[in-house]
Amino acid sequence: MNAPDCLFCRIVAGEVPSTRVHDDDLIIAIRDIAPRAPTHILLIPRQHIPSAVDLVEADGPLLGRIFAVAADLARSEGIVDAGYRVVSNVGRWGGQSVDHLHIHLMGGRSFEWPPG
Ligand code: AMP
Asked: How many domains does the chain have?
């Protein structure tokens, strides 16, 4: 289920240190090591799913958990009133650099649309 050479699998396993802000049976959430916004959190499934293109309908409960936890974290980070961004990069042109599904929760500043 998990990939030995995958950075985020190793973070999930606790083999690589991270700053966890959430941990449950389906996902963890960590602070991004190179934050691009005052709040920059990554929501990461425990299961090794390479990217959003690999999701299937049966992953609905996982996605529900990710978005519910993202909302809870947005509340606790105090970024709900101003607004925030939830995004997942897919593949090379999408800007994905770690091939283990993750959702960026970003806030604390305003963002451009469309992204560069
Ligand atoms: P993406 O480029 O969309 O695949 O996002 C990968 C994110 O992982 C980037 O924002 C990186 O800064 C972040 N990242 C890479 N290594 C680590 C790490 N060891 N701990 C926390 N975040 C990381």
From this structure: 1
| 102 is an active site residue | yes
Residue 1 located in a structural domain: no
User: Does 112 map to a domain?
Assistant: no
Cβ proximity of 10 and 99 under 8 Å: no
CATH number of residue 35's parent domain: 3.30.428.10
The range of the structural domain enclosing residue 27 comes to: 7-107
Q: What residue ranges line ligand 1, CB within 6 angstroms?
A: 7, 16, 18, 30, 32-34, 42, 89, 95-98
pLDDT tens-digit map of 53-108: 999 999 999 999 999 999 999 999 999 999 999 999 999 999 999 999 999 999 99
- Report which of 63, 11, 49 is spatially closest to residue 33, judged by C-alpha positions: 11
pTM of structure: 0.98
